Amino acid sequence: MSTSVQIAQAVALLKSGNVVAIPTETVYGLGADASNPDAVRKIFALKGRPADHPLIVHLHDAGQLTRWTADVTKQVIKLSAKFWPGPLTVILRRAKDVPLEVTGGLDTVGLRIPSHPVARELLYEFDGGIAAPSANRFGRVSPTTAQHVHEEFGAELPMILDGGPCSVGVESTIVDLSSDAPAILRPGGITRDQLESALGVAVPFRAPGNVRAPGTLEAHYAPRAQVLLCAPEDVSNRLASLQQRKLAVALISWQKPALLNASVSYIPLPADVEGQARELYAALRRADELRCDAALVTLPDAAGLGAAVIDRLTRAAASSRS
Ligand code: TXA
Ligand code: MG
């Protein structure tokens, strides 16, 4: 089936209140018509996500912003010009008629214009807002291929729109623009440096004051294997002590040790941090496929996309402990 036929089918399903899995450049999402509260509720049921956790509304272009926010600020205009379409979500005060199902009852709404060509064509044809969280069960690893979504939801979804592997691989950066001082709620595909140079002010990281941002919960993004983090230079020592405990271990790293015990499965990551972000979630899923008890992952430098990779790995490791 051609992509345009599939997009027409996805639009028809969305218009009639169904949930469709959609590709974006960051991760795959579970999409529903953001103006249809019943359709949005289906997302929560599928994901097993608490109803007070807000969703991001995906749009085709900045001309649609006024339908969703009463407040198209100077800052969002600046960020829009630089980073949209792309992996950036902004939090703004919501327009009055945005369904509370979408915002989790909050006074603000998350908005993003994705760059994935299939998502763009879908949004253009749909001509409205598509609410979409990442297409994984609550608390689990986000999907970066259509196959990952299929493994997670299979027949529960009427359609998974296949757009190939995601090019960014970690979720969008979330910037809160709803109060005077902008702040990053979740590091992601657009870096802090990029935001600061676009806005000309400091944009600090800020932990949200409530638990309504699941992607910012301490424990999230977790595979079944226990996630253990280490510096590249500590790999040999850590592997030795894990082997003493007779655990089936996956080593997820861009460096393959010269000597590797046969009981360790090596799952390679690219040498560059963009590649590490792109392939991280698939690597965590691979550790589960191999039925590993533990996944030892080497941490990148915090510069650029490294901040997002470290953020997700830290939460995945926290889930393993809880
Ligand atoms: O890259 C992405 O952002 C992906 C793709 C599908 O677009 N979506 C995604 O959605 O990661 P989700 O639901 O898994 O994570 C969205 C995060 C959540 O932590 C949510 O709480 C937060 O955005 N969020 C949404 N609306 C918000 C709001 N009004 N205030 C604060 N946080 C909000
Ligand atoms: Mg998520």
Write the H/E string, N to C. Answer: HEEHEHHEHEHEHEEHEHEEHEH
Q: Would you tell me the overall average pLDDT?
A: 94
Q: What overall geometry do the principal axes of the alpha carbons give?
A: globular
Question: DSSP helix count?
Answer: 11
User: Class by helix and strand content?
Assistant: alpha/beta
- Major sheet: order of its strands? 1-2-6-3-5-4-7-8
Give the biggest beta sheet.
8 strands, mixed
Strand percentage, roughly? 15-25%
Characterization of this structure:
The chain is α/β, with parallel strands linked by helices. Helix content is about 35%, strand content about 15%. It has 11 helices and 12 strands. It has helices at about 5-15, 35-45, 65-70, 75-85, 100-105, 115-125, 145-155, 190-200, 235-245, 275-290, 305-320; strands at about 20, 30-35, 55-60, 90-95, 110, 130, 175, 185, 225-230, 250-255, 265-270, 295-300. The chain has an 8-stranded mixed β-sheet with strand order 1-2-6-3-5-4-7-8, sandwiched between helices. A 4-stranded parallel β-sheet has the order 9-12-10-11, with helices on both faces. Helix 1 (about 5-15) packs across helix 6. The longest helix is centred in the C-terminal third of the chain and has 17 residues, at about 275-290. It is globular, with a radius of gyration of 20 Å. The site of threonylcarbamoyladenylate has 28 residues, from strand 4 and strand 5.
